[in-house]
Amino acid sequence: MSETDEIVPRAGVIGWPVAHSRSPRLHGFWLKQYGLAGRYDKLPVPPEDLGVFLEALPKEPGFRGINVTLPHKVAVLPYMAEIDSVARRIGAVNTIVIRPDGSLFGSNTDAFGFIESLKADAPAGWSAAQGPAVVLGAGGAARAIVVALLDAGAPVLRIVNRSLEKAEALAAEFGDRLQPVAWDKRAEALSGAGLLVNTTSLGMSGQPPLEIALDDLPKAALVNDIVYSPLETDLLARARARGNPVVDGLGMLLHQGRPGFEAWFGVAPQVTSDLRAAVLAD
Ligand code: ATR
Predict the structure, then answer these.
(1) What does the pLDDT look like over 36-48, one tens digit per residue?
(2) CA 25/CA 228 separation, integer angstroms
(3) Is the CB of 140 under 6 A from ligand 1?
(4) Which of 24, 94, 109, 151 pairs with 65 at a CA distance of 20 to 30 A?
(5) With a 6 A CB cut-off, is 198 part of the ligand 1 pocket?
């Protein structure tokens, strides 16, 4: 056997820090499930080394591409030979494919992951097009969710943010389906909504709680929290207790990994309950 025969396809996730990333567990599960020879590693890259790392990446034996996490999602943009239109609109890249000529193609699969997670886990018949969506937060995660909901046909997106000017800036950028709402009006903003999504870090283990009265939220409204630690956030528990359908945040993480895995390893992977359990186990 020649040396080239032994080179296995490789991918990984760059971040700083990257120790807490669940992506190796996700892709590792799929590699094993589909019986593929391949590797997916944590790749700690400090910000000052990002350019050198990306320039060297195509020369690394076996590397097919990488995921990108904090703080690099925006900083990688100038190194991409091409980015897809969703990544351009979100303004961030989370998945890179090394093309045969060594150039880097950047995409963003967070919007896909969000919508696919709702499709998989929402009650039958629920659709984003049915009513206004309330989005709590206006940061990086909110941008991906705004793009996803615009593309899914949400008629109105009420963007509720502590710093109102960030919600206003999103509305100026993404158009008049977005309505900025002040943080102290968040309870009233739920009136008539078909979807409530928390994109802030509030309610995450170690973070302050998310305080929001749910009385005005229609019982048929779907409630989603992108926080998945804890899996059942206080928001989801309260929504479930009053009869709302809920979708937890783990699905977005799992579904966003699908396009990258397929591009790097050649198999379109499935999100299953076994995968959920494996990624949650620590
Ligand atoms: P990410 O990229 O994960 O979205 P981010 O860009 O830092 O992270 O955004 C965090 C979001 O959580 C923001 O909408 C932030 O509100 P501000 O824009 O006003 O900072 C929101 N957030 C964080 N802590 C908050 C708090 N204590 N109360 C209300 N909103 C909070």
Answers:
(1) 999 999 999 999 9
(2) 15
(3) yes
(4) 151
(5) no
Indicate the angle between helix axes 140-151 and 164-174, nearest 10 degrees: 40
Pick the atom of ligand 1 nearest to 139's CA: 6
The strand pair at 95-98 and 133-136 is best described as unpaired
Helix ranges, 140-272 (H)? 140-151, 164-174, 234-241, 250-256, 258-265
Q: Tens digit of pLDDT for each residue in 176-230?
A: 999 999 999 999 999 999 999 999 999 999 999 999 999 999 999 999 999 999 9
Nearest Cα to Cα of residue 92 among 44, 23, 144, 170: 144
Q: Which of 146, 147, 162, 183 to mutate to test the pocket of ligand 1 (most atoms within 8 A of CB)?
A: 162
How many of the other CB atoms lie within 10 Å of CB of 93?
28
Look at ligand 1, atom 21, and give the residue with the nearest C-alpha.
200
- For residue 54, the CA-to-ligand 1 centroid distance in Å is 29
Residue with token string 């008629």? 155
> DSSP label at 5?
G
Determine if ligand 1 sits within 6 Å of the CB of residue 141: yes
Angle of helix 110-121 versus helix 258-265 axis, rounded to 10: 110
Q: What is the pTM of this model?
A: 0.96
Residues annotated as part of the active site = 73
Which ligand 1 atom is the nearest neighbour of the CA of 137? 14
Confidence category of residue 268, pLDDT binned at 50, 70, 90: very high
